[in-house]
Specification:
The structure holds 2 protein chains of 2 kinds.
Chain A: H1 7-14, E1 27-33, E2 38-46, E3 52-60, H2 63-76, H3 81-85, H4 89-96, H5 104-122
Antiparallel strand pairs in A: 1-2, 2-3
Helix pairs in contact in A: 1-2, 2-4, 2-5, 4-5
Chain B: H1 4-8, E1 17-18, E2 21-22, E3 24-25, H2 36-49, H3 59-78, E4 87-90, H4 93-108, E5 114-118, H5 127-136, E6 139-143, H6 153-160, E7 165-169, H7 181-190, E8 194-198, H8 210-213, E9 217-221, E10 232-236, H9 238-243, E11 254-256, E12 264-265, H10 279-295, H11 297-316, E13 321-323, E14 335-340, H12 345-354, E15 357-358, E16 360-362, H13 367-373, E17 378-382, H14 389-405
Parallel strand pairs in B: 3-15, 5-6, 5-7, 7-8, 8-9
Antiparallel strand pairs in B: 1-2, 4-10, 9-10, 11-12, 13-14, 14-17, 16-17
The complex binds pyridoxal-5'-phosphate.
Chain lengths: 125, 407
């Protein structure tokens, strides 16, 4: 369990990347995790070439959910709309470089940003 | 003398390791650990006495029925209820609350009636009444807590004015607050209201006397007082239980069933115990009550006060940690829910878990309370008769370590 709390995760928790709101996003969604009160709002902007030019989030939660959101929003940048459609849960988890197979509840924290992303692309804002 | 080392020996789970460390179980408010006496009574029942109850006439069935009914008597004495038939077995406290909501509430609450509960309730003692109010067009009123996490009698009295039904917990699972149930019941009764007490947290820790508190209903769960899962209790005054119709229809709650005219309900308590009950769990509940009685409820309460003052004092030494609830140890159970600056409760409990310490984090089924306190979630360490002061020290060490990792 302890190996979860690697320095880069703590650092991302304290100083998240891509944190903030966005004016006129192409995609936007908000999702919460009722058991712990965590929530994430995700924004994605697609440019005229059909690629992600900007991707941001705001929210609150544990180190895992916040670090995951920082990494995942970075991962989205430059992807085409077609590429967005084929991103999987495993792609999201791979960014964290930690194994959460034995921690189903922490897995939910890590995937909150992915679930928010799915909701966003399924319901264009 | 309260011999905690001797008590611990009765709990096989403490022989296990968690993450290679000794288990430090600080989650008894969620569910208690079970002593070998309870475990043995359940296996003993299945090995030697297993049969359905209140149905067969053969020897085994008679024995099972006698054992099952003997537990009803134990529960009656344990909470000082006037009559055995006022003890209804349910699966848990939540089911008992829903029984009252359906069988009493839906029959007697009318449009415009006032239903009162408090902001510190567990969802089980909040949502049923809220839903009842919505369904019936009744008024739903929530009593606030003081800054110190207590129910103020003044505020309670004001809110309860003209109420028909009032529900509150005898002890809070988050604030740890022990309420003056006798006084609050009296205030409710002065207004002519029916008084319902959630005893899920208090019954395991504080001597319960329904005659003294004079409540009309009381609920609790066996699993929080070391009995098996699946054993819950509703106590209700005979006059109320008699007025109510069954909550579940089927076998055993019925005396006569005819194809061409209406059925006749069975008498108390069977009227509310439809379907085959969890007999094994109820037998285990009897063993748990024996276990508690052998130690003595008064001794348990005073040991818990000792633990809670040690705990509050130890936690007050941690910078940036805020304990929710009363500051006076005697006003609370031996548990503390807290929030820490800059560390999310999930991360706190994960880091404690690495040290073998089991605590709970989240909103503990009290979302209205967390909203009121303006915290998204908290971490809760809850202690029971098998916990030691040394475990408080280990908790504090582990919290300091978590702080360092996040600093
Ligand atoms: C105060 C309180 N009321 C009710 C309940 C519900 O108990 P159960 O889930 O066993 O029905 C709990 C359990 O967490 C509780 O702490």
């Amino acid at each position: 369990m302890e190996e979860i709390y690697q320095q880069f995760i703590i650092d991302l928790y304290k100083n998240p990347l891509n944190f903030g709101k966005m004016e006129e996003p192409t995609y936007r969604a908000e999702l919460g995790n009722a058991t712990c009160g965590d929530s994430i709002e995700l924004f994605i902007k697609i440019d005229s070439n059909g690629k992600v030019s900007e991707s941001k989030f705001i929210g609150k939660g544990c180190a895992i959910s916040q670090a995951s959101a920082s990494l995942f929003t970075g991962y989205l940048k430059g992807k085409s709309v077609e590429q967005l459609n084929i991103i999987t849960k495993d792609d999201c988890l791979a960014l964290l470089k930690i194994n959460l197979d034995k921690n189903p509840s922490r897995m939910r924290c890590a995937l909150l940003v992915f679930d928010t992303f799915k909701k966003a692309v399924d319901q264009k804002s | 003398m309260f011999d905690v080392d001797k008590i611990r020996k009765d709990f096989p789970i403490f022989n296990n390791k968690v993450n290679g460390k000794d288990l430090i179980y600080l989650d008894s408010a969620a569910t208690a650990q079970r002593p070998i006496q309870v475990i043995d009574s359940v296996t003993g029942f299945y090995k030697n006495k297993n049969a359905n109850v209140a149905r067969g006439l053969h020897t085994l069935a008679e024995e099972a029925t006698i054992s099952y009914e003997a537990v009803r008597e134990k529960v009656q004495k344990f909470i000082a209820a006037p009559d055995q038939k006022e003890i209804i077995f349910t699966r848990n406290a939540t089911e008992a609350a829903n029984l009252v909501m359906r069988a009493w509430g839906e029959k007697f609450i009318k449009k415009g009636d006032k239903i009162v509960t408090t902001i510190m309730e567990h969802h089980s003692d909040f949502v049923p009444w809220q839903q009842l109010a919505y369904k019936k067009g009744a008024e739903f009123v929530v009593v606030d807590i003081t800054e110190d996490g207590q129910i103020s009698e003044n505020e309670f009295e004001k809110k309860v004015k003209g109420a028909k039904f009032v529900a509150f917990s005898a002890a809070s699972n988050v604030l740890g607050t022990i309420t003056d149930s006798k006084k609050l019941c009296q205030i409710a009764h002065d207004q002519g209201a029916v008084c319902f007490i959630d005893g899920a947290q208090s019954v395991p820790s504080v001597k319960t006397n329904v005659k003294e508190s004079n409540c009309d209903f009381l609920i609790f769960s066996g699993h929080k007082l070391m009995a098996p899962f699946g054993s819950g209790v509703l106590y209700g005054k005979t006059e109320f239980l008699e007025q109510m119709d069954p909550f579940l229809y089927g076998g055993d709650m019925i005396r006569e069933v005819h194809a061409e005219r209406n059925s006749v309900w069975n008498e108390l308590p069977n009227k509310f115990e439809s379907g085959t009950p969890d007999v094994g769990a109820v037998i285990g509940l009897g063993a748990a009550i024996d276990y508690l009685n052998k130690i003595g409820m008064d001794k348990i309460t005073s040991y818990e006060h000792e633990l809670s003052s040690y705990l509050l004092n130890a936690l007050s030494g941690i910078n940036g940690l805020r304990v929710l609830g009363p500051t006076e140890p005697k006003k609370r159970l031996s548990l503390a829910a807290f929030s820490m600056e800059k560390i999310h409760p999930h991360d706190v409990s994960a880091l404690l878990d690495a040290d073998g310490i089991a605590v709970r984090s989240g909103h503990h089924c009290t979302m209205p309370l967390h909203e009121r306190l303006k915290v998204d979630a908290s971490t809760r360490a809850s202690f029971y008769i098998y916990n030691k002061k040394e475990e408080v020290d280990l908790l504090v060490q582990s919290l300091e370590r978590a702080k360092k990792i996040f600093s």
